[in-house]
Specification:
single chain; mainly alpha; 3-stranded mixed beta sheet
């Protein structure tokens, strides 16, 4: 699949402090791995410059859109430990989980200084969401279903128990 060029108004990983990204990933037992510019991104389902996933790591370059990184981190968070152990490039989520992932990436944006949920859920030409995300995603159902799935994942996923207390902040 070919990804169109990233519009100039999209916030990139290189625009955000590395420490903030590392902290967010670390709160979930994940690692943000930096790939050198121009090199292939390990585990990228959509191809460069989109983020990649493998195991407990998300792979990014400085030109990776921040929403892509948040989306892939959200995929790993929503997975049980068994799925994470076998994760390599394709999250393999179902429709409802994909909706939850899209919702969670918006929530997580508030924990990255300079990003915020308002920026990640905007519409129109100045957007930090790819066309396949949240409202326009072919898998998206209702926000209520996505929110419920996030709550379910928060309650059952062992990695979330010692994180940002998302379960409490969403209630």
């Amino acid at each position: 699949m070919t990804i169109p060029d990233v519009p100039p108004d999209v916030l990139l990983v290189g625009d955000v402090e590395s420490a903030a990204i590392d902290h967010l990933a670390g709160c979930y037992g994940l690692t943000a791995e930096r790939i050198n510019d121009g090199e292939a991104i390990t585990g990228s389902f959509w191809g460069e410059p989109e983020a990649g996933i493998k195991g407990l790591s998300v792979f990014v370059r400085s030109d990776t859109p921040i929403h892509s990184m948040l989306h892939e981190i959200s995929h790993i968070i929503c997975m049980c430990s068994e799925r994470r152990r076998h994760l390599d490039r394709n999250a393999g989520s179902d429709d409802l989980e994909e909706s939850a992932v899209c919702y969670l990436q918006i929530i997580l944006a508030d924990f990255v200084p300079g990003v915020g949920r308002a920026r990640t859920k905007t519409t129109g030409s100045a957007t930090d969401r790819p066309v396949w995300s949240f409202r326009n995603h072919k898998h998206t159902r209702s926000a209520t279903q996505a929110r419920t799935t996030v709550f379910d994942r928060v309650r059952t996923c062992d990695r979330l128990r010692h994180s940002f207390n998302i379960g409490k902040s969403l209630r």
